[in-house]
Design brief:
InterPro entries: ARM-type_fold (IPR016024), Mon2/Sec7/BIG1-like_HDS (IPR015403), Mon2_C (IPR032817). This protein is an all-alpha fold and about 1250 residues long. Helices cover about 65% and strands about 0% of the residues.
Length: about 1250
């Protein structure tokens, strides 16, 4: 070298190469000094760094002295380097020095080198504030100035950089990720990545992978860089947190060369391995990593608030980090999940979706991870793992809730049997529904609940059972989907079955935990098993007042079915809570809501048709009221023995009766009828539980049974309360509307089914109250029954209630009234003397009912029409004929039983009966039904058979009866009601025979006892008989075609009149036997001649009677003469035309009557017949002869009658003598007459 004039030329770049190698050796030397000669050349040492204190100080000084210069030099080399191998060496040197600073806890040099490394990964002038940290730059500048190493970038170096960039190939073009420093709305151009950027990215990943434990806070720098690179390359998070390339350019907004497309999966895999390696980090380093990811995620969330597209890198990598570190889940769980829960609440959809995806994926992975100790036995761990999933319920976004519930359903299917201690959280998740959630969300949550109730109830701890019931009740009350509500109520039934089937197991495991069970005041020592049932009953009771009718109905049916099926499991004292905390509050709420319900028609949305009986809210609540009231009554019915053991049963009984009373007075027919059915069910059950009450006191054994087993006072009070309620209901519903109301539509008129049910209750109630049933009670009963039967029927329903006119049947209501009275009658007739005082009132009520056959009762001033007519009137009067006739029949049977009772005699019952019969007897053919007057006269004849003898024995009590009887007989026998025009001869004869029966009664039961009968009555009877005997002879009968002759009746009257006026009883008896053949025998004289007369006996009648009889005979003879004269005149005028049949019958009867009168007068004592009578009789003889001469077309019957009467005149051809003539004289007289 010295012998040459010129020095050799130094190769271009020689100095840079020497400097390059020197820098690398310096870094390697420092690494060897600090880490030792055995350390790996790349700086990745698995050995721990454990220097002494003195060595550590030396090492720190080395790093602090060298890092600024090295950083400046290596940064320039890295910027300018175009060779991949050289770039790789520089990157390794940077990594090595950064790791050394990290091991010495020198954060400033560590962060400076990592910042340089990160900058090399990104395009020049990339807007990234975090990489231009002011504090790092300031520290580096001050340290460099102290050592004279300050260097400012020259224009040349910048030029060189850009020249180098041009020389490098651009492998990817993408969009920049927005940062908080970028103004909102600012536009960023495309970002280009070169191979060198990707090489630096790999180095960065290697740095984080190998030296993650010493990065500390620098994780944020490194992860921020990786996030931007991933964004530019278009890598998107996928399931589990790994990153994958977008499927198309449209998805990623990135243009990537073919060479790099093949590298993207490798880069994604390196990223995943980076976070998978976090499982090798210590807890502190892991927290640094998690904090960096959370900070990065918060920055993305801030961006998303300004409606800019956020990066999901941090959320995805948090998930990936959490999954690989499940072995130490307690360390990372809270910070990771707390941040992810914040992400779940973000308004940005994508951010929120990935937040909940990360939470749910983590929870599912953690629950399936094999923990030590096992998850099944670790209560704390189960609670820790499920808590984040439970806290997601606080998020209001439906998409988040949907993901939560889908995950929960997956968890239940995959590992539900392991979660013994996590059920409270699971049930809280399922039950966290509200009306703001969509139908799909509710359905998804309900699927989870169905799975829990179906498969996991046996695995659930007992403390969760009340929560399960509450959760099912929440689904019953949700309003999004009706079918889910109904199915949820069905689940509650399944839960009750589980309680029942596992009762022994539950009783053994349950404890009285006040935090688990709600308070049930009033029953302090309630067993835990009973508290479980009370939770179920209380929730079902709440659902019974839901706003939807179908839910109320289903809940009510389930509640009462559950009580009926499983109520026997409860302790007796628990029933107090069932009554006072479930059933009665339920009745009260239903009543209040029903009263306040709207009467407007429900909007019939869609194509659903609503029946008219359910088209208003009030009608829908009426159905609930019916269900509730009948259900509670059924509980009282079936559980009465248990309930009677409670101290406050009388109060409960009275309260339920009060609810029934209120409901029975409801304007809704459905509610009122159900109230009565409930009352009847209570009474029927009470009858079986107190059987001694229902036994008849008529038998001695039953009476002894009652004496030995007296009825408790509480029971007596209960039944008295029931009787008062029944009477109050009956009195109020049958009260007629005010007088000013004339239209039924303006007032509430109870329906026939309601009144029928009310009346049917009484016989059951009477069995309990009859020992204490007194006259005043019967008066109340009578007012209710009479009010019931007087209520009219609405015209629309009358065809279904009223029988047709031809049917002789009573309506169900009338039948019920008769049954009620029959029950009272049985008790009165079979019971003791105390009940006999009710008999007169019973007669009065029955007679009142019997009068309805002729005159229907009024219901206030409401206008009604008869059931037999049609018209515009809405309300129809009942058909009372069958009912009245049955009442009358009851009167007869009752009087036959009780006629001799002193109470009946003193109350003048017979007079009242006769008085009640006067109307149908007087109306006769004008009665609505012809059976009425026939039954009335039959009744009269029957009761007189019993009562006349008593009337004679107790004359003082029957004094007023006789005039009434006389009026009744007169009104019937001489009614002004003509028979129907179409009456057949057979019917006429049948009716006439009834009239004759009445006269027979007079002849057999009254007149023979005239001495014991008031004379005024005897006079009236004689007048009546006289009237009957001359009726056919009156001109009125023959002129009025509406009336028909009653020959037999008149003959009977005439014979009776003569018999008791002129003859002795003995003569009458003999005469009675022969008069029957008088009309049919052609030769009556021998029979008359064979009569034996006993003149020693006189008929015992008063003077008044004899005067009346004489007047009657005189009147008769006068009438006879008129008939004879008229007949002769008419016969002459008729020529050859015969007279009408009734005229022939009339004259025939007159002839027979004259013959009978002659025969009777001849047999009577002489002093009994005055001369006027004989004169009149003799005066008739010429007219009789005229009849014989004028008859052109007489019938054989007429000729026989004429012959008989003329034969009787034989003895009158000479003056009569006191002693009777001989048979020979009679025969000679007969012969003389025959000869003439």
């Amino acid at each position: 070298m010295l012998d040459k004039l010129e020095p050799p030329a130094i190769p271009e770049g020689y100095g840079v190469s020497v400097a390059y190698y020197c820098l690398l050796d310096i870094v390697r030397s420092i690494h060897l000094v600090i880490m030792g000669p055995l350390a790996a050349s790349d700086g990745s040492s698995g050995e721990l760094y454990r220097p002494s204190e003195e060595e550590r100080q030396i090492h720190e000084q080395l790093v602090n002295s060298a890092w600024c210069g090295l950083l400046a030099a290596l940064t320039i080399l890295l910027e300018a380097c175009t060779d991949e191998a050289a770039t790789e060496n520089v990157l390794k040197a940077v990594q090595t020095f950064a790791s050394l600073a990290g091991k010495l806890d020198l954060t400033t040099p560590r962060d400076a080198f990592i910042t340089a490394l990160c900058k090399s990964c990104l395009p020049p002038h990339y807007t990234l504030t975090v990489l231009n940290n002011a504090s790092v730059a300031a520290a580096a500048s001050s340290s460099s100035m102290q050592r004279g190493h300050q260097r400012s970038p020259s224009a040349e170096s910048q030029h060189q950089y850009y020249d180098a960039e041009v020389r490098h190939q651009v492998v990817a073009v993408g969009t920049a990720l927005a940062t908080p420093s970028l103004p909102v709305g600012a536009q960023q151009g495309p970002v280009m990545l070169t191979n060198k950027n990707l090489q630096c990215m790999r180095a960065t990943l290697s740095m984080a992978h190998c030296h993650g434990g010493v990065l500390g806070a620098a994780w944020h720098l490194l992860l921020t860089t990786l996030q931007h690179l991933v964004w530019i390359l278009g890598l998107k998070p996928s399931t589990g947190g790994s990153l994958k390339a977008g499927r198309s350019t449209a998805e990623t907004n990135a243009v990537i060369t073919t060479a790099v497309i093949a590298d993207l999966p490798v880069l994604s895999s390196m990223l995943s391995r980076l976070f998978e390696s976090s499982q090798h980090l210590d807890d502190v380093a892991l927290h640094h990593l998690i904090d960096a990811l959370c900070q990065l995620s918060r920055e993305s969330m801030e961006l998303a608030y300004t409606n800019r597209e956020p990066s999901l890198f941090a959320v995805a990598k948090l998930l990936e980090t959490g999954v690989v570190n499940l072995g130490r889940v307690e360390v990372l769980w809270r910070p990771v999940t707390n941040h992810l829960l914040d992400v779940c609440q973000h308004p940005h959809v994508r951010m929120r979706e990935w937040g909940v995806e990360a939470v749910t994926y983590l929870v599912k992975a953690a629950l399936t991870h094999k923990h030590n100790p096992p998850l099944k036995d670790n209560q704390k761990l189960q609670t820790l793992l499920l808590s984040p999933l439970s806290e997601v319920s606080l998020v209001g976004h439906p998409d988040v809730r949907q993901k939560q519930l889908e995950s929960l359903l997956h968890i239940l299917h995959s590992c539900g049997e392991l979660l013994h201690h996590g059920w409270p959280l699971i049930l809280n998740i399922i039950g966290a529904i509200n009306d703001n959630h969509s139908e799909h969300l509710v359905r998804l949550a309900f699927q989870c609940l169905q799975l829990v109730v179906t498969d996991f109830l046996p695995l659930m701890p007992w403390a969760c059972l009340p929560l399960t019931v509450d959760t099912a009740a929440k689904f019953g009350s949700q309003t999004q989907e009706l079918n889910i509500s109904l199915t949820a109520i069905g689940l509650m039934w399944n839960i009750s079955d589980y309680f029942y089937q596992n009762q022994e197991k539950l009783r053994a495991s349950l404890t009285s935990d006040n935090q688990v069970f709600p308070d049930f005041p009033g029953v302090p020592n309630m067993p835990p098993f009973d508290k479980l049932w009370m939770c179920l009953y209380a929730r079902l009771g709440d659902l019974c007042v839901d706003s939807r009718p179908a839910v109320r109905k289903s809940a009510g049916q389930t509640l009462f079915s559950t009580i009926a099926a499983h109520g026997a499991l409860l302790h007796n004292q628990t029933w107090q809570a069932v009554l006072w905390q479930v059933l009665f509050p339920l009745l009260d709420k239903v009543r209040q809501l029903s009263d306040s319900a709207s009467t407007d028609k429900v909007d019939q949305g869609g194509n659903i048709l609503i029946h008219h009986s359910r088209n208003t809210q009030q009608k829908q609540w009426a159905e609930t009221q019916v269900l509730t009231l009948s259900g509670v009554a059924r509980v009282f019915s079936t559980k009465q023995k248990i309930l009677q053991g409670l101290g406050d049963f009388p109060r409960a009984w009275a309260l339920l009766l009060d609810f029934i009373h209120t409901a029975a007075l409801s304007k809704s027919n459905e509610v009122s009828l159900a109230a009565l059915k409930s009352l009847q069910e209570m009474l029927q059950a009470g009858r079986s539980s107190t059987g001694t009450i229902s036994s008849s006191y008529g038998e001695e054994s039953d009476l002894q049974n009652v004496i030995q087993n007296p009825i408790p006072e509480d029971s007596i009070a209960n039944w008295n309360t029931a009787w008062k309620v029944w009477h109050t209901i009956g009195a109020e519903v049958t009260k007629p509307p005010p007088d000013e109301v004339t239209r039924g539509s303006d007032a509430y008129i109870p329906s026939q089914p309601f009144l029928t049910a009310l009346v049917h209750i009484f016989p059951h109630l009477f069995q309990h109250i009859k020992p204490r049933f007194v006259v005043s009670d019967f008066s109340r009963l009578a007012s209710v029954l009479s009010g019931c039967v007087s209520v009219p029927v609405h015209g629309d329903s009358s065809p279904f209630i009223l029988p047709s006119f031809t049917e002789v049947v009573v309506t169900p209501l009338q039948e019920g009234v008769l049954q009620a009275l029959a029950a009272v009658e049985k008790e009165v007739t079979d019971g003791n003397g105390a009940t006999r005082s009710m008999v007169p009132q019973l007669f009065t009520l029955l007679l009142q009912f019997s009068s309805y056959s002729c005159q229907a009762p009024n219901y206030g001033n409401v206008v009604t029409r008869p059931h037999t007519t049609k018209g515009s009137t809405d309300w129809v009067t009942m058909n009372f004929v069958p009912f009245a006739e049955k009442s009358l029949s009851m009167v007869v049977s009752l009087y036959q039983t009780t006629a001799s009772w002193q109470e009946v005699i003193e109350a003048q019952v017979l007079k009242n009966i006769i008085q009640g019969l006067i109307m149908p007897l007087r109306m006769k053919y004008r009665c609505p039904a012809q059976t009425t007057w026939k039954l009335a006269i039959t009744t009269l004849l029957t009761v007189l058979q019993e009562g006349l003898q008593l009337a004679r024995e107790h004359s003082s009590h029957f004094r007023e009866m006789w005039p009434v009887l006389g009026t009744a007989l007169d009104n019937f026998l001489f009614s002004n009601s003509p028979p129907p025009a179409n009456q057949s001869s057979e019917d006429a004869e049948r009716d006439e025979s009834i009239d004759c029966q009445v006269v027979e009664l007079i002849r057999e039961e009254i007149l023979p006892y005239a001495s014991a009968t008031p004379s005024e009555f005897i006079v009236s009877i004689m007048v009546l008989l006289n009237k009957g005997s001359i009726e056919s002879a009156s001109g009125m009968d023959s002129e009025c075609e509406g009336f028909k002759l009653r020959e037999e009746f008149a003959k009977t009257c005439f014979e009776t009149l003569l018999q008791f006026s002129l003859l002795t009883p003995t003569d009458f008896d003999v005469k009675l036997d022969n008069t029957a053949n008088a009309g049919s025998s052609k030769d009556s004289e021998p029979s008359n001649g064979n009569i034996t007369q006993d003149a020693s006996g006189n008929i015992s009648t008063g003077d008044c009677t004899q005067v009346t009889t004489k007047l009657a005979v005189t009147s008769l003879l006068h009438r006879f003469r008129e008939v004879l004269v008229r007949y002769v005149e008419d016969e002459k005028l008729s020529g050859k035309c015969p007279l009408p049949r009734h005229r022939i019958a009339e004259i025939s009867f007159v002839l027979k009557a004259i013959a009978t009168l002659l025969s009777s007068l001849k047999k009577a004592p002489v002093d009994k017949v005055d001369s006027m009578t004989w004169t009149q009789l003799i005066g008739l003889y010429p007219h009789l002869v005229e009849v014989g001469g004028s008859s052109n077309s007489g019938t054989p019957q007429l000729w026989r009658s004429l012959r008989e009467v003329l034969l009787q005149y034989a003895q009158l051809l000479h003056a009569p003598t006191p002693c009777p003539t001989t048979d020979s004289n009679d025969n000679s007289h007969i012969g003389v007459i025959n000869g003439t």
